């Protein structure tokens, strides 16, 4: 039927009917059966077309709203110009009237005549400038800066992945400046969430991190979840419990299959950008106990071995080799040392040497 296929003749979908009787029997294809099945098929096709129609209406509404905005701005500009013309544009006309009626007085007082003429000239110039400015008045529609797209294009054909530094969990809404998960699809394969700077400066909570992780996974993007303790917590001996709790909160509500796709980065806050680092042995112990150990407790040993765990915190070309020798550390989340080509290349080479590659 025409209402059950797309414009190019493809069926809108498939409808299956199962017989609940003995498997040896077959559903009798009576006229009544055919009528019922045909009705159901038409109903399903109508539902599909209705959804497409609703989407078309939504897009039309957005376009209409944009057009109305442009029209409203134009009306505001026209009304403003009209009102200014009534107040300022009338001045040159009135000046000319005074000059016509008071020629003798103005001839006797050159100072008054000169200033009156200057008033008329200034008013005319002001109206001309305002008219020019309002003519170019247009509504502005700020767009996101597409740096990721340029990077993805530059790396096309290589084995280098592209990652983002943050994301918001909602796909749309009044969240000015935030990056929706859908905006990263096709651009980034990874996204950092829960970085200590985001937690400290922007109040990002464990709940936020969990919601961001779920949003990224739903869009096929691998979250890089950051966890780590402060210097005070480290000195009080709270590192293991605190980091373990961060991991539990970040992974709440996820499946073992989802967790196996994740990357978790242990980055002690006190070691970020300070030049201080945890020793490779300490970092290995914390990752094994508070990160991989917690994952194993929650999702099983197979998942704990599948997940990738990184160390981050003032790693550089001089110390990365020792970190990469540790059995619990799968990689590094590099900060400042990655900003120069020479340093970054040196770290990659040292990592390959540590792994025997």
Break the fold down into its secondary structure elements and pairings.
Elements: H1 31-89, H2 91-101, H3 103-108, H4 110-135, H5 147-154, E1 163-164, H6 181-184, E2 190-193, H7 196-202, H8 206-218, E3 222-227, H9 231-235, H10 239-250, H11 256-260, E4 263-266, H12 280-299, H13 301-306, E5 308-311, H14 320-324, E6 331-332, H15 341-354
Parallel strand pairs: 1-2, 2-3, 3-4, 4-5, 5-6
Helix pairs in contact: 1-4, 2-4, 10-12
Description of the molecule:
This protein is an alpha/beta fold. It is built from 15 helices and six strands. The protein has helices at residues 31-89, 91-101, 103-108, 110-135, 147-154, 181-184, 196-202, 206-218, 231-235, 239-250, 256-260, 280-299, 301-306, 320-324, 341-354; strands spanning 163-164, 190-193, 222-227, 263-266, 308-311, 331-332. It has a six-stranded parallel beta sheet. Helix 6 (181-184) links the parallel strand 1 (163-164) and strand 2. Helix 2 (91-101) runs antiparallel to helix 4 and helix 10 (239-250) crosses helix 12.
**Quantity of strands, as a count:** 6
- SSE string, helix = H, strand = E? HHHHHEHEHHEHHHEHHEHEH
- Assess the beta-strand content as a share of residues: 5-15%
Using the alpha-carbon principal axes, give the shape.
flat
What's the mean pLDDT score? Answer: 81
Helical residue percent band: 55-70%
Lateral strand order in the biggest sheet: 1-2-3-4-5-6
Given helix and strand content, the structural type is: alpha/beta
């Amino acid at each position: 039927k025409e209402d059950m296929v797309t414009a190019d003749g493809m069926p809108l979908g498939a409808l299956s009917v199962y017989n609940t009787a003995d498997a040896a029997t077959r559903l009798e294809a009576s006229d009544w059966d055919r009528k019922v099945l045909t009705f159901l098929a038409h109903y399903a096709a109508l539902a599909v077309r209705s959804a497409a129609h609703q989407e078309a209406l939504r897009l039309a509404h957005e376009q209409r709203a944009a057009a109305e905005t442009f029209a409203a701005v134009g009306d505001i500009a026209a009304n403003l110009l009209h009102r200014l013309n009534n107040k300022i544009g009338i001045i040159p006309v009135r000046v000319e009237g005074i000059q016509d009626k008071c020629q003798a007085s103005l001839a006797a007082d050159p100072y008054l005549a000169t200033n009156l003429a200057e008033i008329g000239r200034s008013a005319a110039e002001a109206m001309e400038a305002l008219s020019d400015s309002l003519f170019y008045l247009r509504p502005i529609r700020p767009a996101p800066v597409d740096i990721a797209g340029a990077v993805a294009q530059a790396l096309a054909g290589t084995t280098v992945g592209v990652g983002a530094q943050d994301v918001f969990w909602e796909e749309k809404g009044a969240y000015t400046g935030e990056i929706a998960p859908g905006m990263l699809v096709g651009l980034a394969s990874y996204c950092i969430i829960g970085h200590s700077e985001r937690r400290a400066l922007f109040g990002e909570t464990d709940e936020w991190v969990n919601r961001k992780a779920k949003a990224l996974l739903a869009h096929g993007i691998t979250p890089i979840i950051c966890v780590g303790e402060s210097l005070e917590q480290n000195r009080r001996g709270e590192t293991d419990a605190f980091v373990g709790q961060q991991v539990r909160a970040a992974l709440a509500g996820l499946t073992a299959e989802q967790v196996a796709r994740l990357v978790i980065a242990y980055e002690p806050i006190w070691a970020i950008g300070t030049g201080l680092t945890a020793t490779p042995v300490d970092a290995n112990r914390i990752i094994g106990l508070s990160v991989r150990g917690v994952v194993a407790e929650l999702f099983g040993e197979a998942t704990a071995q599948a997940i990738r765990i990184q160390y981050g915190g003032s790693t550089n070309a001089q110390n990365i080799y020792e970190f990469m020798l540790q059995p619990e550390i799968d990689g590094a989340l590099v900060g400042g040392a990655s900003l120069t080509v020479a340093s970054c290349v040196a770290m990659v080479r040292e990592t390959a040497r540590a792994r025997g590659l």
